[in-house]
Amino acid sequence: MAQLALSKVFKSYGELATVHGIDLDVASGEFIVLVGPSGCGKSTTLRMIAGLEDITDGEIRISGKRVNELEPSDRDIAMVFQNYALYPHLSVADNIAFGLKLRGTPRDEIRRRVAETAAILGLEPLLERKPRQLSGGQRQRVAMGRALIRKPSVFLFDEPLSNLDAKLRVQMRTEIKDLHARVPTTTVYVTHDQIEAMTLADRVVVMNKGRIEQVAPPQELYSAPTTKFVAGFIGSPGMNFLPGRIEAHEGSPAFRLSTGDLLPLAQKNEATLISHRDKPMLAGVRPEHFRQCAGGLAPVTISMVEPLGMETLVHFKLAGEASVARLPPSNTLRPGTQLPLQVQSEHIHLIDPETERVVG
Ligand SMILES: Nc1ncnc2c1ncn2[C@@H]1O[C@H](COP(=O)(O)OP(=O)(O)OP(=O)(O)O)[C@@H](O)[C@H]1O
Ligand SMILES: [Mg+2]
Q1: What is this structure's pTM?
Q2: Residue of the CA atom closest to atom 16 of ligand 1
Q3: What is the CATH code of the structural domain delimited by 240-358?
Q4: What pLDDT, in 10s, does the model give residues 276-307?
Q5: Three-state SS for 27?
């Protein structure tokens, strides 16, 4: 049985529909990340699970029980927000204990659970401090402690790290992953940071305009996106989309770019190739699937070079599209010079621009 199940969940604000029928089953102990551009409905979905927003239609079940009509406090969930607003006049220990006190939990039990939670989060030396005496990361950990101490069935996080600086984000991300490994609570985590999504999730839910585009483990999203949106959203820099057509070239299937260049399509399914032949198509190529090598495409002119240390991003126009390749660092990569490139054709994603679906 799914620990958390959403079926055909809709949300409208007046006339404005923002979530269009979401179906999602989350297994017990699973870490699910909702990711997508700003305004796609991530927070709204999370807030509906939490009970902070009514749902317009559909059903939400937690541990098998319908919760549509239940107050947030009766749903057995705990939520950590971006603005986790600790009580400034209370100590760390009292901040963590706050929810239990409110519920009238006996003192001894509160003391025991605060100690246990502080141990899990490494907060023991800080229990007597006030929030203003903590760093951003420590405050974030206290906010998690407040949620963790309740031992909820489902943990909900809404961009909990977005107020932290880059280095601290990476550290807290690792801590959250480690925490989940030690205390595997069912989790729904919202972020628009795809690295956070990819590194934390058992499965990632990619949302777009109030709909789910794809639900898959991180590696599968990267290697087998099912829509153009997911193909372009996952991966940084994003996938290049090169316009052209599928042709039979000397008996072998190939993708002909508008420049005349041919990309072999030997590994693709024949029926797929035949059904999409001779109409406008897109070849999706990730930046890392170009090779600097003669004998492939006609050389392109480098427009910009971004050295990143371990790799260099090289920008150029290909088939009329601004494109980018991820290449090993080299002194010869300079703007204005010619660059011979090959495409690793086994990694091409064929996209039908009409349906925006990846067909092969
Ligand atoms: N109370 C409200 N009344 C009307 N519209 C709302 C309300 N709350 C959210 N919306 C709209 O619903 C849509 C989804 O908002 P939501 O906050 O879920 O986006 P999000 O994916 O969390 O975005 P972000 O990454 O910016 O946090 C947006 O278009 C937003 O303007
Ligand atoms: Mg949001």
Answers
A1: 0.91
A2: 41
A3: 2.40.50.140
A4: 988 999 999 999 999 999 988 999 999 999 99
A5: coil
